Amino acid sequence: MKNESLLSELFDKKILKVLNVFFENKDQEFHLREISSTSKVPLASTHRIVKKLADMGLIQYIEIKKFKLLKWSDSDKARKLELLFVGRKNPLEFFKDLIKEIEAITTIILYGTPSRDGADLLIIGNEINANDIKSATTKTKEKFGFTVNTLLLNDEQFDQMNRMGLYPKNKKIIYQR
Q1: Rounded CA gap, 163 and 104, in Å?
Q2: pTM for this prediction
Q3: 150: enclosing H helix or E strand
Q4: Which alpha helices (DSSP H) does the chain contain, by range?
Q5: Tens of pLDDT along 111-129?
Q6: Does residue 8 or residue 44 have the better pLDDT?
Q7: What is the spatial distance between Cα 100 and Cα 97, in angstroms, rounded to a whole number?
Q8: pLDDT of residue 166
Q9: Domains in the chain, start-ordered, CATH in brackets?
């Protein structure tokens, strides 16, 4: 969590540790003891925290006979809390981390100012596989609800278009190999 130091000053560290277990494994179901051991929070404290989170509608119980499992809820309240902890500037970082491993990419430029819902990127390199970029944009949209619009250009195309003044908006290099 990037905001962890600020949040740890505002909230109980045990609550943050338990929440972090769910944030890192949103689709996973846990037994109470698993949450306790993973978060390194005592079992009694974990029980108290989980009960409070369930009462707030952030965690849901799944009962299988006598066995109770816990899972992060898909409610609006849970998504809002997750955005608070994960932060709104993470979608671009997430996208960048997905595509910077593509060796054909030399530069990623943020074109204009990003909004809350999306950003425009110029992706520069030679012989970039468009399917890899499309996959990354889809994953970013699914995870954050953030739309990344991309324009793929080779080095020569970008230089020519830049000299012609076709990119007048603010540009910021967010990655360069």
Answers
A1: 23
A2: 0.52
A3: strand 147-153
A4: 4-10, 13-24, 32-39, 43-55, 76-86, 90-99, 130-144, 155-163
A5: 888 877 888 999 999 999 9
A6: 44
A7: 6
A8: 82
A9: 4-86 (1.10.10.10), 90-176 (3.30.460)
